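Lecture 7, part B: from sequences to assemblies.

Below are the input chains for today's worked example.
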Amino acid sequence: KNQVEQSPQSLIILEGKNCTLQCNYTVSPFSNLRWYKQDTGRGPVSLTIMTFSENTKSNGRYTATLDADTKQSSLHITASQLSDSASYICVLGRGTYKYIFGTGTRLKVLA
Amino acid sequence: NAGVTQTPKFRILKIGQSMTLQCTQDMNHNYMYWYRQDPGMGLKLIYYSVGAGITDKGEVPNGYNVSRSTTEDFPLRLELAAPSQTSVYFCASSSRGQGDEQYFGPGTRLTVT
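Predicted structure of the full complex, as structure tokens:
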């Protein structure tokens, strides 16, 4: 069983709509939790970072939340754009070199 | 800054062939990593390095080798390629470990037939 599970696996929304992606984890403890955006054919790029004691972090239209009690994080995208079409990956940083990657959610934004 | 660069972008190998995937970073980062990304799976760590001359195995090191002779370069060597090594390979770097932001290269798509 993966230590970091993401849902849904894929999602299709219309441009301008909001959406929320989920990340459930069993990893404990951890240094921080990041959300990455991965465009097709490219490497992941960091969107937000939260330490285990933070509840929320925003980056423009992207807002990440973290609930340490339920071991859940979410990424909320507001007023989606076509350029938001990508995979979104939840990553927990742990220890000196250890990063635990979720399986990702593939988002498609349609015009 | 170019960030993290990888070559080649695509490669097709026959079973039993060998090749080296190149990775270079120009951010003077101490930590470098090699991951593979298989469809529907999270990135898996193959090898990592905490500085020039120091490398160590990750989760899935079998069939691979690395070296780190300089801070900038971290090549990944595949010996005796097998179909199970068909994947997308990403090189990444970070200033330190401990959850620091990783900067990823564009990836190398490798097919072994």
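Note for the exam: Chain B touches chain A through 25 residues (CB under 8 Å). Keep this in mind when comparing with the next example.
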